[in-house]
Write a structure and sequence with these properties.
Shape: globular
GO molecular function, one term: hydrolase activity, acting on ester bonds
Protein name: GDSL esterase/lipase
Largest sheet: 5 strands, parallel
Distance between the termini: 20 Å
InterPro entries: GDSL, GDSL_lipolytic_enzyme, SGNH_hydro_sf, SGNH_plant_lipase-like
Number of strands: 5
CATH superfamily: SGNH hydrolase
Keywords: Signal
Helix content: 40-55%
CATH architecture: 3-Layer(aba) Sandwich
Mean pLDDT: 92
Radius of gyration: 19 Å
Organism: Glycine max
C-alpha cells in the first residue's frame, strides 16, 4: 500500500482543493466503448442490447432506467464525480440540442461494441470507428459553440476513457465458430490490438492527449460466463481469465510503445482485472455477500432484455451483490472499481 496510499492522499488533496473552488479537474470527459460505459446510446438503436427498462436503474437518481447496464451508477459515473463534474457526460445520441450540452464532454459508448468492428455489427451497435466519427462531429459543434481556440484547449485538456474488448470475446469470439475455429485467442487478441492502435492514433490526431484505457475484466468470473463455459463448476473459468491476462499484458506493452511514439501523449492503463477479481474471490472481505450469482433474475445468465420486471428472483438489495446482471457489476462494485480507476488514472490529471 505504502507509495500508492501516499499517492492517493496527495491526489485527494488536489481533488479537494480544486473542488473547493468548484472547478472540475479537467475541462471535459469523453467516453468510448461498450456496455460497461454506455449511458443510453443504444436506446436509440434497433438492437436487442438495451437496458432502458426496469429493473435497470432502480437505484439511480429518480429510480429511472437510463440505458445503463446497472442498478445505479457506472464506474465511469463515479469517475466523473471524482473529477469534480456535477453531471455525467451525456449519451451523444440522446442530445437533441448539442451545443452547450457538450462543454463538459460526451459519451459515445454503445453496448456490444468493441475494438473489432464486426462485433458491433452483429448486434447492430455502434463500432468504435463510428464512435470516433461521432466525436469528430462533436468537435465541430464545440468549435461552432465556443470558437476554435477554446475548443482546442477543451480537446487537449480533457480526459478520454475507453472501455472495450469484453464484448469482442464474450459476445463474439467464444460463441462464433467463424472466429474460434480460425484464430487462437492469442491471435484474436492481436487483431483487437491492431484496432486499438489505430483508434489511439486517430484520436491522438484529433487532439486527444490524456487517455485512460481499461483492461479486460476477469472474463471467466462473470456469472454468465461461468454458467455458459464453466461446465457446472461454479468457479471462475480459468481459460477465459488467462485470455484476459494475456490480452492485458499485450495492451500494456502496446500502450507503452504508443506513448513513446506519440509525443505529448499521456496514456494510462486502468486495471479492472485485479480489483474485480478480488471482489469475486474475496467477496465477504470486501463487504459483499454474493459473487457467483447476479442480482437480476436467477443471476446466472440474464442480461439486457432477459433482465426485466418479470424476471423471477431478482434480489431486494443489490449492494450485497458484486454483479447486477450476468455480465455487469452492481453500483456497489462500481464504486470500489472507480476508486481503483482514480488511483490508476492519477498520471492523467497531475
Amino acid at each position: 500500500m505504502g507509495s500508492s496510499s501516499y499517492f492517493f492522499t496527495s491526489l485527494l488533496l488536489v481533488v479537494v482543493f480544486n473542488l473547493a473552488k468548484g472547478q472540475p479537474l479537467v475541462p471535459a470527459l469523453f467516453i468510448f466503448g461498450d456496455s460497461v460505459v454506455d449511458v443510453g446510446n443504444n436506446n436509440h438503436l434497433y438492437t436487442i442490447v438495451k437496458a432502458n427498462f426496469p429493473p435497470y436503474g432502480r437505484d439511480f437518481k429518480n429510480h429511472n432506467p437510463t440505458g445503463r447496464f446497472c442498478n445505479g451508477k457506472l464506474a465511469s459515473d463515479y469517475t466523473a464525480e471524482n473529477l469534480g463534474f456535477t453531471s455525467y457526460p451525456p449519451a451523444y445520441l440522446n442530445l437533441k440540442a448539442k451545443g452547450n450540452n457538450l462543454l463538459n464532454g460526451a459519451n459515445f459508448a454503445s453496448a456490444a461494441s468493441g475494438y473489432y468492428d464486426p462485433t458491433a455489427k452483429l448486434y447492430h451497435a455502434i463500432p468504435l470507428s463510428q464512435q470516433l466519427e461521432h466525436y469528430k462531429e462533436c468537435q465541430n459543434i464545440l468549435v461552432g459553440t465556443v470558437g476554435q481556440s477554446n475548443a482546442s484547449s477543451i480537446i487537449s485538456g480533457s480526459i478520454y476513457l475507453i472501455s472495450a474488448g469484453n464484448s469482442d470475446f464474450i459476445q463474439n469470439y467464444y460463441i462464433n465458430p467463424l472466429l474460434y475455429k480460425v484464430y487462437t485467442a492469442d491471435q484474436f487478441s492481436d487483431i483487437l490490438l491492431q484496432s486499438y492502435v489505430t483508434f489511439i492514433q486517430n484520436i491522438y490526431a484529433l487532439g486527444a492527449r490524456k487517455i485512460g484505457v481499461t483492461t479486460l475484466p476477469p472474463m471467466g468470473c462473470l456469472p454468465a460466463t461461468i454458467t455458459l463455459f464453466g461446465s457446472d463448476s461454479n468457479q471462475c473459468v480459468v481459460k477465459l481469465n488467462n485470455d484476459a491476462i494475456n490480452f492485458n499484458k499485450k495492451l500494456n506493452t502496446t500502450s507503452q510503445s504508443l506513448q513513446k511514439s506519440l509525443s505529448g501523449l499521456k496514456l494510462a492503463i486502468l486495471d479492472i482485472y485485479q480489483p474485480l477479481y478480488d471482489l469475486v474471490t474475496k467477496s465477504s472481505e470486501n463487504g459483499f455477500f454474493e459473487a457467483r450469482k447476479a442480482c437480476c433474475g436467477t443471476g446466472l445468465l440474464e442480461t439486457s432484455v432477459l433482465c426485466n420486471q418479470k424476471s423471477i428472483g431478482t434480489c431486494a438489495n443489490a449492494s450485497e451483490y458484486v454483479f447486477w446482471d450476468g455480465f455487469h457489476p452492481s453500483e456497489a462494485a462500481n464504486k470500489v472499481l472507480s476508486d481503483d480507476l482514480l488511483a490508476a488514472g492519477i498520471s492523467l490529471i497531475s
